[in-house]
Specification:
- The complex is a heterodimer of chains A (272) and B (264).
- By secondary structure, chain A is mainly alpha-helical.
- Chain A is built from 9 helices and no strands.
- Chain A has helices spanning 2-44, 52-62, 67-91, 98-136, 139-145, 150-188, 193-203, 206-233, 238-269.
- In chain A, helix 3 runs antiparallel to helix 4 (98-136), helix 4 packs across helix 7 and helix 6 crosses helix 7 (193-203).
- The radius of gyration of chain A is 23 Å and the shape is globular.
- With 264 residues, chain B is an alpha/beta fold.
- Chain B has a 6-stranded mixed β-sheet. In chain B, strands 2-1-4-5 form a 4-stranded antiparallel β-sheet, with helices on one face.
- The chains are: A mainly alpha (272), B alpha/beta (264).
Chain lengths: 272, 264
């Protein structure tokens, strides 16, 4: 009887500890978010201190550097959508509507989500690894002793770069995804190029682009923030770099899906 | 003990160091004279680097004061704290050079961030080359940190620490991981820099040849009692300190039975 009661108390204590730990993480997230907003204020007043050459390198790596993998993945996703759609639509003799399916799914949903997932595994992980390594090498401490906020110097350029580059990559991913769909439609369904692009143009509305671009903006911020957050929280050993990278990727991808679900609910409520 | 009659450069009073509820050291008090080399000694894990972090403003202490001249670092806020910190030069244990920057760019960074705004990039570069020359790295100015040896990294870190002509120079394990010749050269460089700049130098080390070669004064931290157990110049402690652990440590001997081995 006493033993069982002790077990119950231990389980409750463990639950309490877990809740407190989660709450502590949320407080850290809120704290970093606040620091990023303050650093943005400093930037707008022209007082933010960061290395411009490093910031430009981050912009290039986050944007142009990701074009290859974004192209490949979105081309294939566009093609896959067309394949899956074609198989079902052909049963109803509605093969030509594959263009509608691919264009709406790509522009509204897939280009933004798939690009964000790719960026989480590529750029978010790189941010986490870089900052965690700097933590281990005492480079962050060196910045602090120079009176420079690591948030201003490291986090702000990364968050801004990826937040601004992701919508551009999204626009590019839309074009590549539609191209993938066209390749399948033209090759498998004998749909003419003219008809495919005409149907796509008819099916798409400005709201689809606005929705996709808004999502990609939020995804870019989230992926960069997750990478920097886990990098800054990392311990000071080699294993910590791996752990930070894994956490950044996992939280980035999960966050993207959660935000996408929130967008879907909002879009449904607003009848967009 | 320091014999300088002038006002001390650094005064530490009643410092209590702790990580949460875990006490590291308490009742840490000492003074560092201007232009002297002060050694923080002790076994592994006794809190030497933690003490240094309290001194350079990275970790706030649980209690106590750290005064630079008349200014209490941890009581100061914002701009006042920044002004004190600009007088620091810090060499970290692993050098902490920014890996994406060349040695010259590393040395120029403090000048860009905190230096004289009227100084042009060319002037900063010239000063960086001069400092790298001072530590014997003039030819390596355009190399990246991963292209040089550990000893060269330490010297480059030292050049960066000197970039803003600091009044207080903090060196964390400067000779750790260096071969005896590089270590000896670095010791000579530290003494040379102290003579040139007049800076108060605080060194964390447990390298015996180094601490005897450069130390004017020092404090010995004990992991077991979590308090300082000896104060004075390392050579003086070697001759006269009767604490069995300090005695054994400075003679590189195994402590007698019943005396802690310095680790927790």
């Amino acid at each position: 009887m006493i033993h069982r009661r002790r077990e119950r108390i231990a389980a409750l204590a463990a639950l309490g500890r877990l809740a407190l730990a989660r709450f502590a993480v949320l407080r850290e997230v809120a704290s970093l978010l606040g620091e990023v907003i303050l650093a943005l204020g400093q930037l707008l007043r022209g007082r933010a201190r960061f290395d411009r050459a490093d910031a430009w390198a981050v912009v290039q790596a986050s944007g142009a550097g990701a074009l290859g993998v974004v192209s490949l993945v979105n081309l294939l996703v566009g093609a896959i959508l067309a394949f899956v759609g074609a198989v079902q639509l052909l049963k109803f003799g509605a093969g030509m509507f594959v263009a509608d399916l691919v264009s709406i799914a790509t522009v509204r949903e897939m280009a933004a989500v798939i690009t964000a997932v790719v960026l989480s595994g590529r750029t978010g992980a790189a941010f986490a690894a870089r900052i965690a390594t700097m933590q281990g090498n005492e480079e962050i401490d060196a910045l602090k002793t120079l009176g420079v906020s690591p948030v201003e110097f490291l986090v702000l350029p990364r968050v801004l770069a990826l937040t601004l580059m992701t919508p551009l990559l999204y626009a590019y991913a839309c074009a590549v995804g539609l191209l993938g769909g066209w390749a399948v439609a033209a090759g498998m369904l004998d749909l003419s190029t003219h008809l495919y692009w005409d149907r796509s143009a008819d099916a798409l509305a400005g709201t689809h682009f606005v929705l996709g671009a808004s999502k990609s903006l939020a995804f870019g911020f989230l992926v960069a923030f997750a990478g920097c957050f886990h990098g800054l929280r990392a311990g000071r050993n080699a294993a910590a770099v791996g752990e930070a990278t894994t956490r950044a990727v996992v939280s980035g991808i999960v966050g993207v899906i959660v935000i996408d679900a929130v967008f879907a609910l909002c879009a449904y409520s607003l009848d967009i | 003990m320091s014999t300088s009659a002038a006002a001390p450069a650094i005064v530490v009073r009643g410092l209590r160091m702790a990580y949460g509820s875990k006490l590291i050291q308490e009742q840490v008090s000492f003074e560092v004279a201007k232009g002297s080399v002060f050694i923080i000694m002790g076994g592994s894990g006794c809190g030497k680097s933690t003490l240094l972090k309290h001194l350079i403003g990275l970790n706030p202490p649980a209690a106590g004061q750290v005064l630079y001249g008349e200014s209490d670092y941890w009581a100061a806020e914002g701009v006042a704290q920044d002004a004190i910190r600009r007088r620091f030069g810090v060499l970290f244990q692993g050098s902490a050079l920014f890996s994406t920057m060349t040695l010259a760019e590393n040395v120029m960074l403090p000048m860009k961030l905190n230096g004289d705004r009227r100084q042009t990039a060319a002037e900063q570069r010239e000063r960086a080359e001069e400092l790298l020359g001072l530590v014997g790295l003039a030819a390596a100015a355009d190399l990246l940190p991963n292209e040089i040896s550990g000893g060269m990294k330490k010297r480059a870190g030292l050049a960066r620490a000197l970039a803003l002509e600091p009044e207080y120079l903090f060196l964390d394990e400067p000779s750790a991981g260096l071969d005896p010749i590089s270590s000896r050269k670095l010791d000579e460089l530290i003494l040379d820099l102290r003579a040139r700049t007049g800076a108060a130098v605080v060194v964390v080390t447990h390298e015996l040849p180094s601490l005897f070669a450069i130390g004017d004064d020092g404090i010995f931290l004990d992991a077991e009692s979590k308090r300082p157990i000896a104060r004075g110049a390392p050579k003086q402690l070697l001759e006269s300190c009767d604490h069995p652990f300090v005695h054994a440590f400075l003679r590189r001997e195994v402590p007698p039975e019943g005396v802690n081995d310095g680790s927790e």
